[in-house]
Amino acid sequence: MNNKKAKIITFGISKGGCSKTTSAGITAYLLSQEAKVLAVDMDGQGNLTQFLTGVDELCDVFEERTILEAIKERNIEKYIVEINENLHIVPSNDYLALFPRYVYTKATDENKNLILSDTLSPIVNQYDYIIIDTPPALSEQTINSISASDYAVIMNDGSKFCYDAIHKFLEICVATRENGNPDLQIAGVLFSIVDPRTVDTKAMIQLIDEEYDGYRFDTVIQRRAATKRLAVNGFFDNSELEKGIGEYRVFVKELKERVQ
Ligand SMILES: Nc1ncnc2c1ncn2[C@@H]1O[C@H](COP(=O)(O)OP(=O)(O)OP(=O)(O)O)[C@@H](O)[C@H]1O
Ligand SMILES: [Mg+2]
Question: Which domains does the chain have, with CATH numbers?
Fold first, then answer.
């Protein structure tokens, strides 16, 4: 066990299908090759849980054993699932939809944004990194995730709608800094599921660089069938694993430098 506080990193954007879960999952997996990592699934879709554990029947297998119960009991240790020695996860399932109701009807916390932060606090010294996946919405789940984090990675699939969502996500980050998490930093904007050679992608990269100078990670994650198939074949005993995650090794190197 190390005595340093984990770097807590949220992957987010309010636009759906921009590779938040895929990027969070691969990043957690790669970081765990050299460090102790806790993945936290704050999306009721449970995709990060499926991705890292290989379990699809989330409501059966993780019935009342998810981040929602961890939050309600403020006892996260009980809900940590060990994928292997270095990679752990707190799962989620559909019932995380009840989180906003809990926040506004049951939780007595003065600052409702810091409920997840409070939940994570007993175990932050047990990990080097905590990686949080969020839903495609500026919801309570996302706000609590950002409020618990040291850094945010903003996903971008190169589309106009995703470009618009960056501005809104950054507004939430500013609000979060003013309301409980003053030290939150933007780790950067990560392009994913794109073909970097197309004119449209190049134009979007240029636009982001002009508007958000220095934010963009140099690594651009390409659209690859092997990356998509990771959701089916998983990380373990997967002969095309390197094809699917290779580019992320460069991204993770960049990320580690930015969160030093
Ligand atoms: N680099 C990639 N190349 C090809 N397919 C990808 C890549 N990254 C992600 N995908 C696929 O794109 C789809 C959306 O990815 P993912 O689920 O990670 O996005 P998301 O932002 O988490 O979505 P949601 O907003 O629903 O949470 C998935 O089918 C995933 O397997
Ligand atoms: Mg997702």
Answer: 7-258 (3.40.50.300)
